[in-house]
Amino acid sequence: MIARRRQVALALTALLAAGAACQAKDRQTPGRPAPSAADRGFTLVASGDVLPHSSIIDRARFDAGGNGYDFRPMLAAARPLVSRADLALCHMETVYGANGDYTGYPAFKSPPEVAPALAATGYDGCSTASNHSLDDGAEGIHRTLDALDRAGVRHAGSARAEAEASTATMLRAGPAKVAHLAYTFDTNGYPLPAGQPWAVNLIDEHRIVADARAARRAGADVVVVSVHWGTEWQDAPDEMQLTLARRLTAARTGGRPDIDLILGTHAHVPQAYEKVNGTWVIYGMGDQIAGEMVNYAGVQDPRGNQSSIGRFTFAPPARPGGRWRVTKAEFVPQWFDVDAGRVVDLDQALAQGADVRAVRDHIRDVVLSRGAAKDGLTMGR
After folding, report:
1. Using one digit for the tens of pLDDT, what is the confidence trace for 319-330?
2. Which segments constitute the Capsule synthesis protein CapA domain (predicted)?
3. Domain boundaries in the chain?
4. How far is CA 212 from CA 44, 220, 253, 281, 320, in A?
5. What is the pTM of this model?
6. I want to staple 129 with a disulfide (CB 3.0 to 4.6 A). Which of 91, 182, 294, 364 is the partner?
7. What three-state secondary structure class fits 301?
């Protein structure tokens, strides 16, 4: 175990150096003319749950030298991949506290310093609808969205006002307008705030389709739906996930799918990618950041610190009003090393000699378990 940790530490040193060298989103190969907006597509990356347990909060305080909280080092290894995408989406599972009142499981209140760290990593937006969205009531939602706004990170799934809830989050990805919608299966039994039924988006098939169609009418070229769903600690998608995925991807207007990509979170473990009715679905990306995870059997489960980043290359339609097509679908295995307190890109760690092949291979096998390879999904770097 000590030898493995030393190997990982060496790999992390190299990864952090690579993250520091990545300065901005790369949009163009140096020395080549930029393609015209009409011909150019875009890349979208998406990653799993950011779930700061107490140990994660303590680590961020240590990384800040005891003065505040710094989550940037935790995410540094993800920065080269995230920052080079035209559009990068995360899942902010918890709400933010204030004035040092920060807690982990079971009712999370995270330091708001998470938000600028997400921005520094290159994230453009985050889904915020989760079973923890109401851990601190409406006040928690307000603090979270306010902090994301200050950091310049867009958000979808929870709201401070009815008008905000009824307006799709629109993001620019190269020449395309992308709508980001987000929903959760539950709020852990916490009721929606009195008079604010719009505070958190709950999963409802008909509402999701209606919202997607409204976003399309508002000018969205691509509609991305984040769903917080599934059975915790289960590698395979459950029947609710499979059924909802089939129904959402089957929804069409004028022959064009209403939803172009589905991003799943919540299960704590990586789950499969699958092309359903011609649309890519990630059932679960796993936890990008989390402390030591204990499963329902009361046993520490290393799968709770494994995840994947999805990367999709979209090409413009052949004719006006047509669908933006995914021309390349990839996943990148990742792992959160709880000892080092760092996200690890597993392929890069392997290249540096770290003994993490079994972790990478497990993520790969789960991601491909529903036959996505035959539809072109590959493991990226």
Report:
1. 988 999 999 999
2. 43-292
3. 37-379
4. 18, 9, 10, 16, 19
5. 0.91
6. 182
7. coil
